[in-house]
């Protein structure tokens, strides 16, 4: 008996082993089918939220044109999965994602430039078009922009602060009156958060990359470690734990919004994604641009853009181009995507349409007006980690000059 | 074990076969050849072999599609081999060995070989594909619209069958309403009288002698449409989707003669450098799209000589050992202590205690790590609030190290408690009773009898636990993320393990560098293997002494 049972187990094992050996090339059978479908098939990859919003429109596009459109949700590591699948030839025809993926997708030959007519281009927010332009080529069709702003609890702080010093003074007063326990909720954590501290960094005079003649970011001109960046971080250090205590490492990405909605701080630096929580907690809030240092430069937040891309190795590139350049540019789709997740649409017509229903949208967009496009060059990947850690160390009381010089050296060493 | 494994269906068969096996070991071969075939056995065999065949066919299609003939050959040979093996009555030992061997090849040997081979390449972001892929990517991404050129509205047409006939682009200029037909031979003007066009967009809806493809038909021939380029004097007309076309030119072109890429706008050239897998210009500027090349021992020498990697290496290695030994040792001491306490016959309510003690083990460790991370928060964390402390736990090197060890202890001791309880029950009470009769103190009897016997049973588990904790990425990434980091070195933190450090080096910089990552993992493998080999040989000696 033992022999037979073992035999059964063994053969079952074999079956599994065989599937393990042979199956490696067929991970995504669904995508493979696209080539075989007679009338043409379009496969789109997006994250969970956007997949739900895209589905009805994709179906409509399919019905209008007699093709099959499949929207597949990739909930984790969409960019990495897309690049890897493209390389193996099992990727989608269209992918939806953030514009700062462009650099990496281009260096891996995973996306193709898209050609928009001058008339189509003029329908978009200028910053959004700039964001998806890389090496002088347009690589995606943008549909939404996003940036951070200062969200304040109007019951605690009725006035929007003009400068960061005003904000600190107001926050300290609230703290002294025991109305709040923190001055400002700006997430840092033990390892920093370059994205959220960036407006203060620019206001202090710092920059990340210089720009080339044609307006692209230039990885050879690194601003981190330069005297301007040291000056900026000296100002930031004064707000830190050894200074005013407005910036703290104990405020993290996980607790910053919760602390704000718990009325423990009157000011929150965050994006449109924080609004849902604030509404749920019945906080009376208002949105204004992140203030800069008194007498400093403008505080410029990063502007990120969500876009549609045409896969370079897609099976149905012509249909993908048709969808991305002629269908995604319609305002109806942009409005639907806005409803799935409230970020300002990049299409001016769509933005005007939803602006009336949602006053927050215009305020966020106003806060991002002077924003800087998040660099899409691959070198940006080398910035995040060292920059954030330097920020955390400086907030904790480390010497700004020494710390930021070391961060600059590390970043420069990682940029090829 | 044999009884516990046998299924209910095979029980009736037992009397006939067991005596044969036991009684006639020498003739077992003939005995087996004539063993009766049972219905359950036959059905099982048919179902499982059918499954093998099914899986093989399922796996074959993508291989054929990708023209992976070697892979297909291996698949066919393996399947045929399996059928032969399990349908014939011979090769009995092979029937047992083959499944395990296949698993070993698929899940152990193949990944190890693949990892080792990747270590000798520059595989990573920007260097994923072949040189041809890179050239195609460079050329297509440099196609620019000719300044001031017309944007045509496009209809895709053919003179023959919509599914197979040669494709023609029917183009119309939306401003002048001039119409053209274009194919690989060039552009021809059509007489406006020959075509019908939409009055709104100017798109041609019908033309004499041509069949116009609808979008469904056209999208079925997507590749031909994308590949069709209509040469013009200024560049070439290409389709942009299925309803528009533009005149564009590839600014960068590959020249096989000089093995270089030339930019027609700036005149700059980038020459292929097979050593690094990139096109490099004279001024050192390189094109982003590179290809995968063999770089020999470069990754290995980089690990050993790059000061960024090698300088903090030994400090990290030391802490890595401290972490692995500390995690294993502390959890073992605590788990064993509790197990001994609960093992005492005088202890009451042991079952309740046991259930309570197992709880941390029953909770998902990922979630627990995140909860612990928040508990260590300076201002909002439970620990500081509860005890009225103001410790910046993850801010100081030693407090962060103590914190991660504390978390490890909490997560790990129930396991040690479980296995020690099991091992304790296997130690006969007579032995400890005998020592007390001889007048030994409880400590002496524990040191001389219980602990050595426990260690014989638990050493392999302790070694496994050590090896696991040596590479315990989650314990660090979900709590301190390797921090705190010294102000002057953001790449290596106080609680970094080699594996988290490697992860940052390989994936933190400009995209992923799989080549470098695999190289460092080979180094880590070597370290763990040496430690494990030494420990196992010591265990063997111990077993010889005590058994």
Automatic annotation (TrEMBL), chain A:
Please report the organism this UniProt entry assigns to the protein. Answer: Micromonospora chaiyaphumensis
Q: Name one GO biological process term.
A: maltose transport
What is the designated name of this protein? Carbohydrate ABC transporter substrate-binding protein, CUT1 family
Could you tell me which CDD domains the record lists for this protein? PBP2_Maltose_binding_like
Regarding protein family, the annotation reads: Belongs to the bacterial solute-binding protein 1 family.
| One MF term in the entry's GO annotations | carbohydrate transmembrane transporter activity
What keywords are assigned to this protein? Signal, Sugar transport, Transport
Cellular component terms, GO, for this chain's entry?
ATP-binding cassette (ABC) transporter complex, substrate-binding subunit-containing
Q: Is Transport one of the keywords UniProt gives this record?
A: yes
In terms of domain of life, where is this protein from?
Answer: Bacteria
Q: Which InterPro entries match?
A: Maltose/Cyclodextrin-bd (IPR006060), SBP (IPR006059)
Point out the signal peptide segment.
Answer: 1-20
TrEMBL record, chain B:
Q: Where in the cell is it found?
A: Cell membrane
Record protein name field: Maltose/maltodextrin transport system permease protein
Family, as annotated: Belongs to the binding-protein-dependent transport system permease family. MalFG subfamily.
> Which is a Gene Ontology cellular component entry for this protein?
maltose transport complex
Extract the ranges annotated as region (Disordered).
Answer: 1-29
Alphabetical keyword list: Cell membrane, Membrane, Sugar transport, Transmembrane, Transmembrane helix, Transport
Q: Which organism is it from?
A: Micromonospora chaiyaphumensis
Organism domain of life = Bacteria
- What phylogenetic lineage does the species belong to? Bacteria, Bacillati, Actinomycetota, Actinomycetes, Micromonosporales
Is Transmembrane given among the entry's keywords?
yes
Its BP terms in the Gene Ontology are: maltodextrin transmembrane transport
